[in-house]
Amino acid sequence: MNEWNFIKVPLGDKSYLQDVLVFLFRMKEGLLMVDAGLNTDHSFMVISEGVERLGYKLSDIKSLILTHYHLDHCGISLRLKKLLSIPVYLHEKDRKIFQFFKENIERYPEKTWEFFRSYGVQEDILSFITNELQKYKKLLLGPTDTLNINDGDLFEIESGFLRIIHTPGHSPGHISIFYPEKRILFGGDLILKDELPHAGIYPHTVQYNPIKDYLESLEKIKKLKPEIIIPSHGEPILDPLKRIEEVISFIKQKIDEVYDIIKKGPVDLSHVCEKAFRRCEKSLSCFFFLSLSLSYVRYLIEEGLAEEIKKGDLILFKST
Fold it and tell me: What is the DSSP string of 283-305?
């Protein structure tokens, strides 16, 4: 094994993305692992076999860092923590989300229904989404007894140090990992080569302003001047600054687009979603596009360009 390597863990039908990369870094003693795939027996088998192909045993993993709380990045962390008695590091803002799931997992689909129904989303669409979420409840759980990881923290590996960069946007506690000796950024889900950014608001992030955080995180990464970004999905980004500018441009263009929609308001969330992203339909992807639409509206509200108004039991949006 080189100073670092990765294992490609399939996501099957649990994501439109084909797989997620689990990274392994050589330390002076054992391995540092970054992210942990889905909480399924298949993911555990793929990770175990991948570690062995690299010439190690599963017991050689001594620490685990989670870039963020999403189910395709945290799943096996629960099993590894119990099996190996290793420390698991996670930003406090995402640990609180795991705590929310732990306390509310049985009612989470219903909470999702109530949350988006208040914004006027059609009941038949919400019924489909919440029925689908019932299948995911087990996969949403993650460790709540984690060690805090913060911006600027350093982790020693055999050939240098890894520096933690807090890059919220995709999630409140999302972190990226910078390897300064090689000018490599392991970017998690902050920025992908062929996918546009997702930064949604959900029942567990109701007060969050993801778009503001996303833009600030991208500017933060620009200042690091990485020579390559290796995301958790897809191919490496070999021209990082160009790709960062493309994503910033997309976000700003979408902000203007959503603002133009709201200026014709009052409008509900489904209308914003249909005009800015895609028509709401009976699919789980609709759940993500609704949450993304709400993020752009939240940005405009906090910039003083839009506001919520009540119409009966529903929340609508209009420009100020």
Answer: SHHHHHHHHHHHHHHHHHHHTTS
